[in-house]
Amino acid sequence: MKVSRANVSRWVNETRDPIGDAVYEIHKGLQSIDPAAAEDFVMKYLYDED
């Protein structure tokens, strides 16, 4: 997963959200492929109630 020890420590101590980190990485990857898809992903993640 390429996760540093510092990040694991932050997750364990609840000073960082691993899911939030994953959302950011997914958005960043999509942004490089298709900016519209990246925007759709964020909007669905934040506002979709299903």
What's the helix and strand layout?
Elements: H1 5-12, H2 18-33, H3 35-47
Overall spatial form: flat
Instruction: Report the helical percentage.
Output: over 70%
- Low-pLDDT runs of 5+ residues are none
Number of helices: 3
Q: Mean pLDDT, nearest integer?
A: 80
The description of the largest β-sheet is: none
Our Rg estimate from Cα atoms comes to: 13 Å
Gist?
The protein is built from three helices and no strands. The chain has helices spanning 5-12, 18-33, 35-47.
Which tags fit this structure?
flat, 50 residues, 0% strand, mainly alpha
Describe, in plain words, how this protein is organized in 3D:
This protein has 50 residues and is an all-alpha fold. The protein has a domain of 34 residues. It is 74% helix and 0% strand. It contains three helices and no strands. Helix 2 runs antiparallel to helix 3. It is flat, with a radius of gyration of 13 Å. It starts with a helix and ends with a helix. The model has no long low-confidence stretch (mean pLDDT 80).
